[in-house]
Amino acid sequence: MTTTNTHGARRIVVIGGGMVAHRFVEAIRPGTASGELEVTVLADEPRAPYDRVALTTYFTGRDPQSLSLGDREFWNADGVRLRTSCRATAIDRASRQITLQDGAQLGYDHLVLATGSYAFTPPIKGNDIDGCFVYRTIDDVASLRGYVEELRKEDPDRVLNGVVIGGGLLGLEAAGALQALGARSRVVEFAPRLMPIQVDDGGGQALRRLIEQLGVTVHTETASSRIHGRYGRVHQVEFVNSDRVPADVVVFATGVRPRDELARDAGLPTGERGGVIVDDRCRTADDAISAIGEVACIDGAVWGLVAPGNAMAEVTANQLLGGDGTFPGVDASTKLKLLGVDVASFGDAFGQESGSLEVVYADPVAGVYKKLVMSDDARTLRGGILVGDASAYAALRPMVGRELGSDPAAYLVPEGLAAPGTGDLPDDSVVCSCNNVTAGTIRASVVDGAHDLAAVKSCTKAGTSCGSCLPMVKNLMIAGLEAAGVEVSKALCEHFSMSRAELFAAVSVSGLTTFSEIIARHGDSGRGCDICRPTVGSILASLGGGHILSGEQASLQDTNDHVLANLQKDGTYSVVPRIPGGEITPDGLITVGEIARDFGLYTKITGGQRIDLFGARIEELPLIWRRLVDAGFESGHAYGKSLRTVKSCVGSSWCRYGVQDSTSMAILLENRYRGLRAPHKLKLGVSGCARECAEARGKDAGVIATDKGWNLYVGGNGGFTPRHAQLLVEDLDDESLIRTIDRFFMYYIRTADRLQRTAAWLENLEGGLEHLRSVVIDDSLGIAADLDAAMARHVASYSDEWRDVLTDPAKLSQFTSFVNAPDVPDPDLAYIDERSQIRPVDPHQRPVLISGPRIPVSGGGVS
Ligand SMILES: Cc1cc2nc3c(=O)[nH]c(=O)nc-3n(C[C@H](O)[C@H](O)[C@H](O)COP(=O)(O)OP(=O)(O)OC[C@H]3O[C@@H](n4cnc5c(N)ncnc54)[C@H](O)[C@@H]3O)c2cc1C
Ligand code: SF4
711 C-alpha vs ligand 1 centroid, how far in Å? Predict the structure, then answer.
C-alpha cells in the first residue's frame, strides 16, 4: 500500500536519531529534494544526530555542538524534519501509526527503525550507586565529567580512582577519558586479553603492555562481583575472588544491546541475541518497516560498528528511491588510536578461513605485534592485526582479497618495504570501509575538481567516519593532483587551511589559549588530527601558554612530552637533568650518581655534555625528579621540541688558547633559552677560539669567540643530513650576540613549518641568509621589537616543568604504576650486565618471533 500526505509525498518516518539515521537522510535526499518523499526523524536525545565514535573527544573540553552530523541547512531542507527530545513509544502496524511519548500519533507510509543500542549494565549488586556510569551518549559523558569535577572540587588534593568494567574498545576509550580527567584508571576484563574481539593473544599481550605503560592498571580473566558504596557513593569494586580495589567512579563498558523493544512489542521477529531480523534489503517481516544500524539483525548477527549501519542506511534509501540495492556484507575492519596506542584489525584477522597462513612479527618488549593472515600460497592477503604500529593499515586494508605482490614479511618488519604506492592500488579496492569508497572514486573526484582533502571528503564521503583511511586518501589525492600538474596545497592539514607560520601569527594575534578555541576560530571547528593537535600544542607552548600538562594542553602533547621523559625501546624512560654549559659541581655529580645507583639506572654522558639516566619506570619518574629538584637540577627538556643543550669548551678561563669565556657564555645562553618550545629541537654551541672544540658549527646557533667578541653561525645540525652552520654576523659584543640569537630563534619559531629544523627553514627562506640578516640586524620587516618582546616574555615566564609537576597532585597522578604490585619488578623487563651496568637484552635474546608463511593456523593441510 502506498499512501501520501496532503502534498502528495510519501511519508517516511525514522525512529532514532543516531549516526545511521543521519546517513539515511543523506542518502534519501534525491527523493526529498524532488518532493517525492518526506522524511521525519524522531530522536529521543535532546540534540541532532552526532558523531558517537568521537564521543571521547568531549573530554578535552569540546563543545558537543562540534560533534553534530549535518548542519542547520541539512536538517531544515525541504522534505526533512527532525524532532529532538521526541521518543516513539509504540507502533501500530495495522493502521501504520506511531505513538509518541506525549501521546500524539504520527502516521507513516514506510517506517525505518534506527534505534541503535543501549549500554548494558551487568546485574551486580551496587551497580546503581552514585558514581556508576555507562558510556554511550553525550549526556552520559557529561554526567561522568561533572561527577569527577565535583569530587575534585570537594578535595583538590585527592587522587581519584576510576575503574572501568570491560576491556574492549569502549572500555579502553573510557579508561583514556578517566585519565584525561586526572583520575587513575583501572580496567577489568573478563576475557584473557584486552579487546578480545579485535585482537588475538599475541596482539592482546602487546596491547596490554602498551596500555599499562600509559599508567592504566589492567586486570584480565577476572570479573567484578559487587560495587561497594560509602556515604551513598561508590567506594570500592569487589572481584569474584573477593579482592577489592578503591573506586571513586565506575564506568560500565560491558557491551551494548539492541533497542528492539518497539519492534518486539509490535510483533516483529527478533534474533536470538536481540535485534530486529531483516533480509538483505533491510526489510523486516513487515514490508512497510525496515531496520538499519545497530538495532538490525542481518545475516543472523547484530553489528556494533558504523560501517555496516551506513551500508544498511544506503540500501534502504536506495530501495525507497526505487532501486534494488542489497546489503553488501560486513567489513568489520577497525583502526583505533586508544590512549595514543595504535590498534588495527582487518579482514579475516583470526585466520578462520580454511588453509590460512600467518606471518607474524612480534617484539613484546617494544610493544609491537603485527600479523598478516595469508592464503595457503602466501600470496593473497586475507586479513591482519597490527598493535603498537599500525602505519601499514591504510595500505594493507584495501589489499584484502588481493595478491600483495611481494614478501608479506617485508610489510611487517621495522623499516621494511614501503607500503605499495598509491598508483598500484586498483580502482576497485575499497579505501574507506566505513563509507565503502574505492580508490577509483577518490581518483575520479580529483579529476572532477576536488583539489583539497576537504573537497575529496565532501564529495566522496571517504574518511568522514572513523578517519583511519585519511593518510591513504590524502596520498591518492596528491598523486592525482601531481599527475594533473596542479599545485599541492601548503595547508597544515585538512583542519587548518593555513600553513604553520600563518597559524602561528593568527594564534599570536588572537591571543587564544586552547585548541578548541583555535580550531573553532581558525580551523574547521572539527576535532583536529595527529598533525594539527601537537602543532597547536607547540605553538601555544612557544607563546608561553602555561604548563604543557595543564588542562586541554595535556591532550595535545606527543608521547615523550606527555610524561616529560624519553621513552626507550624497552618501555622504560630516560631522565636528563639540565647541566647548563656542561658545567657541574662535584656535589652535583655525586647526587646524580647516588640517584642512578639507588634506582639501578644505566648512566651515560651525552654528546650535549650532560648525563642521561636510563631504565626508569614511569612511577619512578616523580621520585627521581624529587631528588634532582631538591638538589637544584631542572628538566633538561630532552623530550621536547625545544632547547636541548648549549655545548661549550672551557674557553679562556682554563685553556691557554681561549680568547673569550665560552663556558660563562654557554651557561648564560642555556639559562636564557631553557624551556623555549620550537617547531623542532634547538641546540647551541660556544667555542672559546677558532679551534672550535665545542663543534659549534654543527648546531642551530654556533658561537665562536674572536679577539673582538663573538662570531655567530646559524642553521647547522648533525643527524641524518649534517649541515655546517653559516656565518650570520661577526665580532658581536655580549649584548648584541644575545639580541641577535633572540631574534633569530623567535623569527624561526614564528615562520618555520611543522617539524622543520633551522637548516631546512633557512634553505627554504626566501632570500636565505641575506634576508635573515636584514630582519634580525637591520629590522627590515619592522618586527625586531616584537621578536625582542616575545623572547623577554619567554625568559620572564620560564618555570621548571618538573618542579611544577611535583607540586601539583593532578599532574603527579598521571605517573602511576602500571603493575599491580609496584615493588615487584616487571617480569618483561629483561636486562643483562655489561661493563658493570645494566642494559636491555638484545632482540635475539628475547622472545621476538618473525615467522615465515609456513605456519598453518586453520584448516591445516599446509606444509
Ligand atoms: C565511545 C564510542 C566509540 C565508538 N567507536 C567506534 C569506532 O571506532 N568504530 C565504529 O565503527 N563504531 C564505533 N562505535 C559504535 C558506533 O557509534 C555505533 O555503531 C553507531 O553509532 C550506531 O549507530 P545507530 O544509528 O545504529 O545507533 P545509535 O548511534 O545508538 O543511535 C540510535 C539513536 O536512537 C535513539 N532512540 C532509541 N530509541 C528511540 C525511540 N524509541 N524514539 C526515538 N529515538 C530513539 C537513541 O537515543 C539514539 O540516539 C563507538 C561507540 C561509542 C559509544
Ligand atoms: S675552542 Fe679554543 S678555547 Fe676552546 S678549548 Fe678549544 S682551543 Fe681552547
Answer: 64
CA-656 nearest atom, ligand 2: 8
Residue 4 has pLDDT above 70, yes or no: no
Q: Are 445 and 428 in contact (CB under 8 A)?
A: no
Is residue 761 within 8 A of residue 753, CB to CB? The reply is yes
Phi, psi of 177 (to 5 degrees): -65, -40
Return d(Cα 361, Cα 370) in angstroms, integer. Answer: 5
H/E element holding 840?
strand 837-840
**Across 375-391, average pLDDT:** 86
Residues in the chain: 863
Cα separation, 861 vs 375, in Å, equals: 12
For the chain, helix, strand, coil in percent to 5 are: 35, 25, 45
Residue with cell 599570536: 508
Please name the helix (run of DSSP H) or strand (run of DSSP E) that holds residue 666, with its range, or none.
Answer: helix 662-673
**Could you tell me the sign of the dihedral formed by the alpha carbons of 286, 290, 296, 298, in that order?**
positive
- The answer to whether residues 199 and 387 touch, using CB atoms and an 8 Å cutoff, is yes
Q: Ligand 1 centre from 19 Cα, in Å?
A: 6
Query: Taking 80 as the threshold, does the pLDDT of residue 299 lie above it?
Result: yes
In one-letter notation, the amino acid at residue 554 is: A
Q: Find the distance separating the first CA and the last CA of the chain, reported in whole Å.
A: 60
> Ligand 2 centroid vs 653 CA: distance in angstroms?
10
Placement of cell 579502553 in the chain: 172
Q: Which three cell numbers stand for residue 572?
A: 622504560
pTM: predicted TM-score of the whole model, two decimal places: 0.60
Burial 521-541 (b: 16+ CB within 10 A, else e): ebbbbbbbbebbbbbbbbbbb
Q: pLDDT per residue over 812-828, tens digit each?
A: 877 765 444 445 555 56
Q: What is the pLDDT of residues 179-217, one digit of tens each?
A: 888 889 999 999 999 988 888 988 888 889 888 888 899
Cell numbers at 477, concatenated: 589525492
Relative to the alpha carbon of 656, which ligand is closest? 2
